[in-house]
């Protein structure tokens, strides 16, 4: 089984005319890692992937795969295989011919190809489907054939361009686990592109969050979720309640923010902002819906806010309570449904509290658009 | 209301009859003239059912030679036009987007330029080139086949390109990228991914190119040199008068066209039916009833149909002999002739009796006109029709095979000179 190799982007810029698609990307992906690029559509993540697979030369900077500079090496000479967003299965070839295309172009005999196709079909749990045409398969089956086709080329790096976006929710969740399993079995480097933070967090060892061509943060799922580097990351990955204001005082890692509407609130300063954030700076405080809770009493504190309930939403596992926030935005609180009597009738005033260490303060900046 | 709709239906029916009569009438009339024995293509009076005109056709060196040249030129044009058309279409997808509209206009222009202009310009241009290169006038650049292929391809390639562009628009360039990504070279990606995708378009472009080449007259007339094509031969023949062998040729072409179209339609319907009944795509595509060489190979199917058609025609021709009928007709004609001669003789005698002094002069004149009416048919009645000759006729329809497919309209045109001439007999 091939061992995954490192993929490094060094100061990569990609421009199309005057438009900068990728700005100064520096990424170090370790061999055998499941690495995701996460960002809204049009943020340049697919462009980065194409520069790794060789369909695009970076305007500046270097792409290294396994330490080797890939400049001037075409996609057919790189040790990468790409799974396309639309899968790009060859419609006129049977499934087994699709899977073994990479062997066919190298001149492997038909018997060899058949044998390998059968192995791979077993691996993707589609035995005896080799004689079908791709158009006769279901979405999930096509997906797996595309993976088998890419793996048949025995790449050192597998690139996946939003391969699950066309599937329905159930199948998508199932394929997440399956992809992760395949990755661990074959042990090669996976680079995964997605705009779905759930996919990125569940599967990846590391995630790079991108915004308009810039990589805002690289880190594990935990880091990205719990310790965002920018307001964009905080608002794009998962859900977050934003409170705008100014830093009133700083004590170690903790900052007191005087918010525009909800009074003074205490929160931890994000790791990247520690030492940089100063008293008087405009700041944004983020509290996740699951961090908020109903306070046992209504006495004010620096980790409490009082607001009125607007409406409620029941999801089964959790129920969400929406309350009046600043600037017309709603404050969302998620409570686990443990069968307790709910106290949140519409129009009621509620006092919420949170653990200050679980809330994050960042210098004010751009948020992800809803 | 009821009478209104009835009237409408009647009118519609009448219109359809007129419309189809207009479209197909000449073809039908012409087909029948191929089986009538008079030596000028005519439907009335119907004399004898005969196949001799197929025989005459099979022995007409000029027509056969024309068909041969047409086919050689057709194949050359197909090869050149398909390649140029495909290259042109691919270029359109690759070219800088700002130039695309301009490029499209340029490559489509030959379709809009009159064929006559293309013919003259081809002749002049290659003549200049030939002189520049210091080649003799007998060189390849003055060769009729070479020039005709080049001249026709200038605009036929544009037709092909249109076909290819339509198909290419549905091509997912991601497939080529996927192939490259899986280690294929650019040539392999082209051969294994794009070319199979383009195959149906290449097929239809080839048929289109062949038909356009086969029926072309106005460009070819400038470039054919020593190699007249079928259309050129037919046009030249018309000047010296024609016989029903041309109807026979038309009939063969019409029959082949109809058979080809029917076969294609049957195949298509059967496939649709199978798909509608839930047969998997791969099964329908894979389990074509014919052996492998024939599957998806219209030329082979046409060849078989042609052989069958030819064989049955020969068999029928051998088993049916129009000789007795012709003898009867000849006998009748002879009788009529004799009666006429008799009448003339009587008249002459009367004349002689009336004007004894003016005899010899009138006598000579009237005698020479009588046999003249009889003569045109005589040559054809000889021993042309014995079975030995019929065997020779078999190769004649063979080179025709690629003609069968869709271009009904195209062939209607080719034979228009004969259609015009049908009017002639009535004036006789």
Features:
A: Rossmann fold, OB fold (Dihydrolipoamide Acetyltransferase, E2P), 2 domains, 5-stranded mixed barrel, globular, B: 428 residues, mainly alpha, 19 helices, extended, disordered C terminus
Number of strands of chain A: 20
Question: Which CATH class of the domain at 54-317 in chain B is shown?
Answer: Mainly Alpha
Indicate how many domains the architecture of chain A comprises. Answer: 2
Helix count, DSSP H or I runs of 4 or more residues of chain B: 19
CATH architecture of the domain at 54-317 in chain B: Orthogonal Bundle
Oligomer kind: heterodimer
* Radius of gyration of chain A, taken over Cα atoms and rounded to an integer in Å: 24 Å
- Helical amount among residues of chain B, as a percent range? over 70%
Organism (chain A): Sneathiella sedimenti
Domain ABC transporter (chain A): 7-237
GO molecular function, one term (chain A): ATP binding
Keywords (chain A): ATP-binding, Nucleotide-binding, Transport
Quick structural overview:
Chain A is of the alpha+beta class and 370 residues long.
């Amino acid at each position: 089984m091939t061992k995954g190799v490192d993929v490094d982007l060094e100061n990569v810029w990609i421009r199309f005319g005057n438009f900068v698609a990728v700005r100064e990307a520096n990424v170090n992906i370790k061999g055998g890692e499941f690495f995701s690029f996460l960002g809204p559509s049009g943020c340049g993540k697919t462009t980065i992937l194409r520069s790794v697979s060789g369909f695009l030369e970076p305007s500046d900077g270097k792409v290294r795969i396994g330490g080797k500079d890939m400049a001037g090496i075409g996609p057919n000479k790189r040790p990468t295989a790409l799974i396309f967003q639309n899968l790009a299965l060859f419609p006129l070839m049977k499934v087994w011919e699709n899977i073994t295309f990479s062997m066919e172009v190298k001149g492997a005999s038909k018997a060899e190809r058949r044998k390998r196709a059968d192995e791979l079909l077993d691996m993707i749990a589609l035995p005896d489907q080799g004689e079908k045409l791709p158009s006769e398969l279901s979405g999930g089956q096509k997906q797996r054939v595309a993976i088998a086709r890419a793996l048949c080329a025995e790449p050192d790096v597998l690139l996946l361009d939003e391969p699950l976006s066309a599937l329905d929710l159930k199948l998508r969740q199932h394929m997440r686990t399956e992809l992760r399993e395949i990755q661990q079995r074959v042990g090669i480097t996976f680079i995964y592109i997605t705009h779905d933070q759930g996919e990125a967090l569940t599967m990846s060892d590391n995630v790079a969050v991108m915004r308009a061509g810039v990589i805002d943060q690289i880190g594990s799922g935990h880091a990205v979720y719990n310790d965002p580097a920018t307001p964009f990351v905080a608002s794009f990955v998962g859900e977050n309640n934003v409170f705008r204001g100014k830093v009133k005082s700083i004590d170690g890692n903790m900052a007191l923010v005087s918010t525009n509407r909800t009074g003074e609130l205490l929160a931890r300063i994000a790791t990247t902002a520690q030492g940089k954030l100063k008293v008087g700076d405009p700041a944004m405080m983020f509290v996740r819906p699951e961090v908020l809770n109903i306070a046992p009493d209504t006495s004010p504190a620096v980790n409490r806010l009082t607001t009125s309930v607007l409406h409620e939403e029941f999801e089964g596992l959790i129920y969400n309570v929406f309350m009046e926030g600043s600037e017309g935005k709603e404050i969302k609180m998620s409570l686990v449904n443990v069968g307790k009597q709910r106290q949140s009738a519409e129009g009621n005033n509620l006092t919420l509290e949170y653990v200050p260490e679980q809330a994050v303060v960042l210098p004010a900046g751009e948020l992800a658009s809803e | 209301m009821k009478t209104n709709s009835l009237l409408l239906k009647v009118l519609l029916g009448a219109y359809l009859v007129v419309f189809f009569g207009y479209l197909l009438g000449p073809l039908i009339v012409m087909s029948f003239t191929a089986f009538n024995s008079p030596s000028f293509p005519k439907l009335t009076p119907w004399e004898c059912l005969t196949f001799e005109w197929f025989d005459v056709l099979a022995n007409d060196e000029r027509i056969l030679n024309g068909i041969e040249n047409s086919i050689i030129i057709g194949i050359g044009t197909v090869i050149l036009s398909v390649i140029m058309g495909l290259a042109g279409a691919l270029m359109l997808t690759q070219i800088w987007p700002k130039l695309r509209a301009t490029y499209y206009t340029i490559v489509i222009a030959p379709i809009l330029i009159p064929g006559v202009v293309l013919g003259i310009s081809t002749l002049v241009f290659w003549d200049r080139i030939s002189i520049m290169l210091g080649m003799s006038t007998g060189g390849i650049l003055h060769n009729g086949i070479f020039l005709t292929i080049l001249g026709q391809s200038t605009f036929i390639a544009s037709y092909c390109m249109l076909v290819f562009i339509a198909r290419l628009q549905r091509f997912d360039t991601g497939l080529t990228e996927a192939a490259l990504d899986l280690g294929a070279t650019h040539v392999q990606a082209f051969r294994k991914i794009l070319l199979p995708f383009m195959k149906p378009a290449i097929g239809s472009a080839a048929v289109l190119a062949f038909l356009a080449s086969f029926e072309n007259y106005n460009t070819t007339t400038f470039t054919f040199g020593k190699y007249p094509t079928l259309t050129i031969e037919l046009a030249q023949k018309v000047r010296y008068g024609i016989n029903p062998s041309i109807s026979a040729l038309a009939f063969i072409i019409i029959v082949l066209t109809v058979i080809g179209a029917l076969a294609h339609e049957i195949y298509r319907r059967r496939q649709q039916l199978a798909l509608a009944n839930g047969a998997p795509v791969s099964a329908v595509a894979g389990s074509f009833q014919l052996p492998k060489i024939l599957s998806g190979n219209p030329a082979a199917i046409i060849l078989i149909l042609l052989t069958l058609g030819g064989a049955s025609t020969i068999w029928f021709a051998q088993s049916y002999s129009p000789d007795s009928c012709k003898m009867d007709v000849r006998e009748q004609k002879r009788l009529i002739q004799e009666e006429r001669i008799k009448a003339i003789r009587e008249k002459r005698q009367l004349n002689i009796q009336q004007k004894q002094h003016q005899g010899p002069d009138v006598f000579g004149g009237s005698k020479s006109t009588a046999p003249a009416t009889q003569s045109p048919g005589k040559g054809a009645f000889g021993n042309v029709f014995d079975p030995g000759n019929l065997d020779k006729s078999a190769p004649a329809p063979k080179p025709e095979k690629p003609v069968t497919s869709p271009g009904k309209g195209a062939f209607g045109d080719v034979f228009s000179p004969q259609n015009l001439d049908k009017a002639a007999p009535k004036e006789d």
